[in-house]
Amino acid sequence: MSGKERLPVRGAQGDLLRLVATGHAESRAQLARISGLAASSVSLRVEELIDTGLLVEEGSGTSSGGRRPRRLRVSPAAGLLAVADLGAHHARLGLLDLSGVPLVVEERACDIALGPEATLDWIAASFDELLIAHGPPGVPLRGVGTGIPGPVDPASGRVVSPSRMPGWNNFPVAEHLGAHYDLPVLVENDANLLAVGEARSWPGFDNLMVLKAGSGIGCGVIVDGRLHRGRGAAGDISHVRVRTDSSTMCSCGHPDCLEAYASGAALMDALAGLGIATRRPADVVALVEDGVPEATALVRNAGRLIGEVLTVLVNFLNPDAIVVGGSLSTAEPLISAIRAAVYERCLPLATRDLEIAVTRGGPDAALLGAGSLLLDAVLG
Amino acid sequence: MSGKERLPVRGAQGDLLRLVATGHAESRAQLARISGLAASSVSLRVEELIDTGLLVEEGSGTSSGGRRPRRLRVSPAAGLLAVADLGAHHARLGLLDLSGVPLVVEERACDIALGPEATLDWIAASFDELLIAHGPPGVPLRGVGTGIPGPVDPASGRVVSPSRMPGWNNFPVAEHLGAHYDLPVLVENDANLLAVGEARSWPGFDNLMVLKAGSGIGCGVIVDGRLHRGRGAAGDISHVRVRTDSSTMCSCGHPDCLEAYASGAALMDALAGLGIATRRPADVVALVEDGVPEATALVRNAGRLIGEVLTVLVNFLNPDAIVVGGSLSTAEPLISAIRAAVYERCLPLATRDLEIAVTRGGPDAALLGAGSLLLDAVLG
DNA sequence: CCATCTTCCTTCGAAATCGAAGATAGAGCG
DNA sequence: CGCTCTATCTTCGATTTCGAAGGAAGATGG
Questions:
Q1: CA distances from A369 to A142, A197, A338, B262 (A)
Q2: Which residue is nearest to nucleotide C5 (CA to C1')?
Q3: β-pairing verdict for A208-213 and A152-153
Q4: Chain C bases closer than 7 A to any CB of the protein
Q5: Which helix (H) or strand (E) holds A187?
Q6: Interatomic CA distance for residues A10 and A208, integer angstroms
Q7: Nearest-5° Cα angle at A118, A115 to A124
Q8: Of A313, A306, A262, A304, which is closest to residue A284 (Cα–Cα)?
Q9: Nearest-CA distance from A115 to chain B in Å?
Q10: N or C: more exposed end of chain B, with fewer CB within 10 A?
């Protein structure tokens, strides 16, 4: 395995490296504008970063009327990040360079019901395999991180009262995963990772609500360009009471939670009750695309319920965009129903410039999000 | 009137002055810790600020085990801020020094139905009177600001679609008020001002929801210690659909808005329907305190409805505290009902450390909030 | 009361940062 | 092509900031 030495940046260098790595700047002039440092200071620090081999100059960018900028990139040899996004039955795992560009991403089957030790050790072993198979020799690992399909206490890195992860409650995930490495370790809720990853694809949108509609319903909140965690549990919308005719008890002990009607798991249950078998939320989307009316009606109803919950949040948070991701997000009726509910019921002032759209960041968005947050830890 | 020269601070001096003015620091050592500057740099800048007469040394603070700090304060002669909080039928007006300490606060009757020009000119005239009567000679006015009981677009300083301010729609309030002065002008929603003012009384609480329950229902949101505006309309909860048996049409054109059941105006209407006349929301509180059962029942129901809306927002934003202000906030059944609803329905994770309490900042909190935001503008 | 500790604040040489001026490299246009 | 314009980047002296060391003032505890 590669070395694990600390990244040799201090003071302003870290800020500049971060700005290049996150894609916020790719020339000295941009760095000066964004960082607030004087152009001369930027030149000096960039020179040093190039000398240490962390930055490289690579061709030139497009002119904006004058001399073309000399494009800066984080060196591929600056380091690697090993990141994972853990789902109920499979995980995406990947290696990123420090600017968040994936070297390799794989999806592998796993089972979180085997418990935290087994699952986390499996993740670590998978990281090792990826590093041996795809890690360029001599490039050090700088950090590891994983997304978790449940609430995570950011301070302790523990899972807290997850509804769909038996045996994981209060397990010190960050500590256990970190024992394999002497490196910064990130453990974060999966919807939050998705939100951070998506945010990179929405420049100029500083306030985002990123919905993850899969087996469960999660939501990551970006306020002022940064992930909002609150006291650790922010973004939960699955246990909001919805307006329905019937009455269903949720696993949380309250009646009529959104999750009990609009989550992928709930839709699969409802279809099963109609004699239609599905194995994964994506199967529901397939049924909708095949024009199965029962599936379409259920999905549309789910979208309406989600949309009604979002109306409250849109009026309150007044975001720039609602981004819908997760395996259900490709179901067209879901998005239309969300749109209809939000635009119909929200204040005109709140929807005036509101965009409601599906994910832009691609299937690896959550991994990019993990990379982004890890970079902060690495350069912190 | 006093002079209007620009405040002679540049660079780090402004940050330090702001930290002292906002009460975040009152000694050189604290300034060094909070600002991140070296202690020596702080000493130099503070020296300069004292020389310019903006800061003064005043006695010494309490020791924490070693030498006592020399307490720093913003000089009373550094400048004045003229601030107002406009309500439907009266306004609070005051003069503050740059650290937000009120020199004088008055409540005067007015009528926003007279239209924006008349009202704003009246505010300006009142400011002039206060300055003549209470402004120390030679102390310059540094900024003016006012709170508005309706939505304000922060970029343009215009009122946008206010529901209770006939004739004000789209009026350029900041521009008109600013024409009287060559100074920074602040125009902000009243609930937002209250939130900023309250935040000063809640140190360590970085995420706050501040409810203003008066004739209308407003909410100011503090995220990460700063006012969250979204695209300008953030914090609206009055037009959320609530779960009720009956059905009432709101002035916004939708059925069953929270405002139509739980605002002071709605309560007064409901009491009038029962043959009980009230003139102001405070009269409703008095009825509750007198044990009038109809009033108590209505107020408790309002609290329950508000609480149910807050459950959604608490799960989502996961704040440190919900602070209830406005003229209805002194009605005990309102708070109890809100507490009951929130604690019953929210996730344990979200309510674990959640405080629900009434205002701490006193009757002038909104004015202090205006002062706080104005200070940012003055030192910006 | 005196030695010791903690905290606050200042002094002073070293290092980082700034800003104005200039050098560099292209775009735009006749 | 040559002229001007604009934007990018560098050079260099002036300024600001840092950080280690030390002095000042009070707390603590015998």
A1: 16, 4, 25, 41
A2: B66
A3: unpaired
A4: 5-13, 16-21, 24-28
A5: strand A185-189
A6: 32
A7: 130
A8: A262
A9: 22
A10: C
Closest residue in A to B313 (Cα) is A313
Helix/strand/coil for A336: helix
CA angle, B46 as apex, B43 and B51 as ends, to 5°? 125
Q: Which residues contact A152 (CB under 8 A, 6 or more apart)?
A: A158, A159, A160, A173, A187, A188, A189, A232
Mean pLDDT, chain A, integer: 94
A236 touches chain B (CB under 8 A): yes
Is it the case that residue B177 has pLDDT exceeding 80?
A: yes
Section B277-302 average pLDDT: 97
Which residues contact residue A68 at a Cβ distance below 8 angstroms, ignoring those fewer than 6 apart?
Answer: A60, A61, A62
**Plot region of A224 (φ>0 → left; ψ -120 to 50 → alpha; else → beta):** left
How distant is the alpha carbon of residue A199 from its chain centre? 9
Provide the pLDDT for residue B61: 87
- At residue B169, the 3 state secondary structure works out as coil
DSSP reduced 3-state for B221: strand
For residue A149, give the nearest of A194, A104, A96, A197 by alpha carbon.
Answer: A194
DSSP letter at B219 equals E
The whole-angstrom distance between residue A236's C-alpha and the CA centroid of its chain comes to: 15
- CB contact residues (below 8 A), chain A span 128-187, against chain B: 151, 160-161
Helix axes B281-289, B293-317, angle to 10 degrees: 110
Nucleotide nearest to B12 in CA–C1' terms? D16
Residue with token string 């990826």: A130
Q: At A5, is the pLDDT very low, low, confident or very high (cuts 50, 70, 90)? A: low
**Amino acid identity, position A161:** S
pTM, entire model: 0.93
Cα-based distances in Å from B355 to A67, B202, B314, B318, B342: 57, 11, 11, 11, 11
Please give the pLDDT value at position B2: 40
Three-state SS at B331: coil
Q: Model confidence over B330-348: pLDDT tens digits?
A: 999 999 999 999 999 999 9
User: Residue B242 carries which DSSP code?
Assistant: -
The reply to whether B225 touches chain A by the CB within 8 Å rule is: no
B60 or B339, higher pLDDT: B339
Q: Are B187 and B177 in contact (CB under 8 A)?
A: yes
Amino acid at B220: G
Beta bridge partners of A325: A212
pLDDT in tens, A261-300: 999 999 999 999 999 999 999 999 999 999 999 999 999 9
Angstrom distance (rounded) from CA B262 to CA B297: 12
Rounded distance, CA A266 to CA B36, Å?
Answer: 51
Does B348 contact A161 at a Cβ distance shorter than 8 Å?
yes
User: Tens digits of per-residue pLDDT, A335-366?
Assistant: 999 999 999 999 999 999 999 999 999 999 99
Interface check A239 vs B, CB under 8 A? yes
Going by their DSSP bridges, the two strands B355-358 and A152-153 should be labelled as unpaired
Q: B107-111: list long-range contacts, CB under 8 Å, 24+ apart.
A: B110/B86
Q: How confident is the model at residue B4 (pLDDT cuts 50, 70, 90)?
A: very low
- Tokens standing for residue B233: 């309309």
For residue B79, the 8-state DSSP code is -
Strand-pair partners of A321: A208, A355
